[in-house]
């Protein structure tokens, strides 16, 4: 999303080469009746801070910020106010930006926090579908043998991704490498055996259960087999004739 901060700051994202009127998204951070006491911490809904979604894909764009207004109202209500006179416009990952009033009242605060704000850049390969791109293997981008092709959700183009159980760069040969799940102790609590793209987790010998669950390997019960032996005896008597 696009975030704009400051006093009467108009920020917008414009397609490169279309400076006349065509732009994708924008908003204006107003300063009307703005003072320290009117600022709402964590709220970025127009007063000193605004945000706008980016709804259309673009290969090239510019982010511009302008001053819009006849006067600067920041700090005019309080002589002892220390408002930041800077204006900002930036791209930030959705739901990762939290506005703080100190960004406008304390110079340097935003600059310190901005280095930790992530942004997600989505891109596609050419204007082809996966099905068509596979027919042109000379230019097909998913060159790793352990990668797959995904059609883009917003129009033509595709991207590459490593198979499940693999990680790395799908755009280079042998770029997707097997993940050794056995190196992660939380994956298996028994005997772990790594396999291509997966792993096996078994309970130790003489135990049974699910090795992937902590404490779920139980010792086998010892069964004692008793052999019953019937010993027979017979009695005999001797008789003498007199």
TrEMBL record:
The keyword Signal is assigned to this record: yes
PROSITE patterns: ASX_HYDROXYL, EGF_3, EGF_CA
MF terms (GO), sorted A to Z: calcium ion binding; kinase activity
Positions of disulphide bridges: 182-192
Classification via Gene3D superfamilies: Laminin
The keyword Transport belongs to this UniProt entry's keyword annotation: no
Name recorded for this polypeptide: Wall-associated kinase family protein
């Amino acid at each position: 999303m696009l975030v704009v901060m400051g006093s009467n700051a108009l920020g917008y994202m414009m397609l490169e080469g279309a400076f006349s009127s065509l732009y994708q998204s924008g908003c204006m951070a107003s300063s009307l009746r703005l003072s320290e006491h009117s600022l709402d911490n964590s709220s970025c809904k127009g007063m000193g801070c605004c945000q706008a979604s980016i709804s259309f894909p673009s290969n090239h764009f510019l982010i511009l910020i302008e001053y819009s207004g006849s006067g600067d109202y920041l700090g005019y209500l309080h002589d002892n106010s220390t408002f930041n006179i800077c204006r900002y416009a930036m791209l930030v990952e959705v739901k990762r930006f939290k506005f703080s009033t100190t960004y406008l009242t304390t110079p340097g605060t935003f600059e310190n926090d901005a280095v930790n704000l992530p942004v997600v850049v989505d891109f596609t390969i050419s204007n082809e579908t996966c099905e068509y791109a596979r027919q042109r293997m000379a230019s097909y981008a998913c060159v790793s043998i352990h990668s797959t092709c995904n059609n883009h959700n917003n129009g033509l183009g595709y991207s590459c991704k490593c198979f499940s159980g693999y990680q790395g760069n799908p755009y280079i040969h042998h770029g997707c490498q097997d993940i050794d799940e056995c190196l992660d102790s939380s994956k298996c609590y028994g005997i772990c055996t790594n396999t291509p793209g997966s792993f096996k987790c078994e309970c130790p010998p003489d135990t049974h259960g699910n090795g992937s669950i902590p404490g779920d390997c139980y010792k086998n019960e010892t069964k004692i087999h008793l052999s019953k032996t019937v010993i027979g005896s017979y009695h005999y008597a001797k008789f003498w004739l007199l």
